[in-house]
Amino acid sequence: MQVPFVELGRSFDRIAGEIRSVIDALLQESCFVGGRFVEEFERRFAESCNTRFAVGTSSGTSALRLALAASGVGAGDEVITAPNTFVATVEAISQVGARPVFVDTEPLTGNMNIALVRKAVTERTKAIVPVHLYGCPCRIAELAEIVSEDQIALIEDACQAHGAESLVNGKWVRVGSQSTAGCFSFYPTKNLGAFGEGGMVVTDSEVVTERLRMLRDHGQRNKNVHEIEGSNERLDSIQAAVLNVKLDSLDKWNKERRALARTYHELLADLPIGSPEPPEDVRHVYHIYAIRCEKRDVLRTFLSEKGIGTAIHYPTPLHLQPAYGRLGHKPGDFPEAEKWSREVLSLPMFPGLRQEEIEYVTAAIREFLGGERRS
């Protein structure tokens, strides 16, 4: 049996007719940049996140960078984040002129350790960027307390967490809705994925929204009046049209991912590996189903030989990447993040993944471990 790491066609087949119809409508109108398709998707995505505004961007990376810039983060500032994330999180910080300040991660979730965040805050801290890693929400209410005390911007990296929720004051709230701004990526493999690149910033702030709209469109509010220096980082109309159709299926697909995760949990429960352990007060959306194994690289090779696709998110924490050597970190500075990078392995996870495929994957892991059991 061959089990792909991801297979986008299985979810596309369910909505192919609707997608083709909306693309035909867009072509008939020749509406390729801006216009009603982008505006409608921004409105509906804001509603889905329970925020007042949403501003489409060209990618998740641009969403992060523009959100930081629109929140006033710039040269000489410090921004606290985690080292075990995709490089875009830290690229965005550096590219607005700020200095990334890393804190280590929690052992169970891989999300940033809140106690260490408190210790890392200085008079130069201008923002905190928590990453909802793999679709598991950070403890956002505790982070909100920290930023409210020190007037720090809270910019959520929700690029892997479309539709994820946290229990705050007895109410389930969507990621992106409890902060200065929440940033999303619509890369094709995401829980809500485009047919190319795309991103979004959600916020309740009119000031941040207005600045975002100018920054993404050459600094103009009105055509040919460039009030600030911006760039071209708009969301394409065709991507907005596709995403607007797919948005109707997001909650259903996330529910399916949770069901698939439960099957993995049950079949792996007695094995001596680390499985995702989200807290009871969050609703994980399993963009990635990541296990941990001390023999990760050997296991990955074994699964590949069985026809099973896997991935590693992420093999080298960012404080040890050459691009960030200037920060002066060394191995051992963030031991939990480094341990995750040595052990983490992402298993197949996508809507349409079949029961027999999960059984095949977990049976192969069981075979590799040779009868070992969780102690």
In short:
With 375 residues, this protein is α/β, with parallel strands linked by helices. It has helices at residues 9-29, 36-49, 60-70, 88-95, 114-120, 140-150, 206-215, 237-247, 250-268, 296-305, 335-343, 355-369; strands at 53-57, 78-81, 99-102, 125-129, 153-157, 165-168, 171-174, 181-185, 199-203, 220-222, 225-226, 282-283, 289-292, 344-347. The protein is built from twelve helices and 14 strands.
- Distance between the ends: 31 Å
Q: How many β strands by DSSP?
A: 14
Number of domains: 2
Rounded average pLDDT:
96
Helix content: 25-40%
Uncertain residue ranges: none
Please write the string of helix (H) and strand (E) elements.
HHEHEHEHEHEEEEEHEEHHEEHHEH
Structural class: alpha/beta
Secondary-structure map:
Layout: H1 9-29, H2 36-49, E1 53-57, H3 60-70, E2 78-81, H4 88-95, E3 99-102, H5 114-120, E4 125-129, H6 140-150, E5 153-157, E6 165-168, E7 171-174, E8 181-185, E9 199-203, H7 206-215, E10 220-222, E11 225-226, H8 237-247, H9 250-268, E12 282-283, E13 289-292, H10 296-305, H11 335-343, E14 344-347, H12 355-369
Helix pairs in contact: 1-8, 2-8, 3-4, 3-7, 9-12
